[in-house]
């Protein structure tokens, strides 16, 4: 689990990022989860955008993505989700204690 201080730190780091993936009408699927997990391994921190035609609740989508990829849900703001997962091989972000 991330502390409040760590979440603030990650939100600040994610501020300038653009969403890489989009969740649309089809919702969350296994292929998407695999791609997001691979991207998190390389980047550690990323944004996912929820399109207007997505029929699921944005918090349900966020929780599905976090659970399915083993990532931490940093933030849901508007239609954007911020995810973090510590990389095993490409560690770039050192979280504050």
From TrEMBL:
PROSITE patterns: CRM. The keyword Transmembrane does not apply. Residues 1-96 form the CRM domain. GO terms for molecular function: RNA binding. Keywords: RNA-binding. Pfam families: CRS1_YhbY. SUPFAM superfamilies: YhbY-like. Signal peptide: none annotated. NCBIfam families: RNA_bind_YhbY (TIGR00253). PANTHER family: RNA-BINDING PROTEIN YHBY. This is RNA-binding protein.
């Amino acid at each position: 689990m991330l502390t409040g201080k760590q979440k603030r730190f990650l939100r600040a780091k994610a501020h300038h990022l653009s969403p890489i993936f989009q969740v649309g009408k089809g919702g969350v699927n296994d292929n998407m989860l695999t791609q997001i997990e691979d991207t998190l391994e390389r980047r550690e921190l990323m944004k996912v955008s929820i399109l207007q035609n997505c029929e699921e609740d944005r918090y349900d989508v966020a929780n599905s993505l976090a659970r399915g990829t083993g990532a931490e849900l940093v933030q849901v703001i508007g239609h954007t989700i911020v995810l973090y997962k510590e990389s095993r091989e490409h560690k770039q972000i050192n979280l504050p204690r």
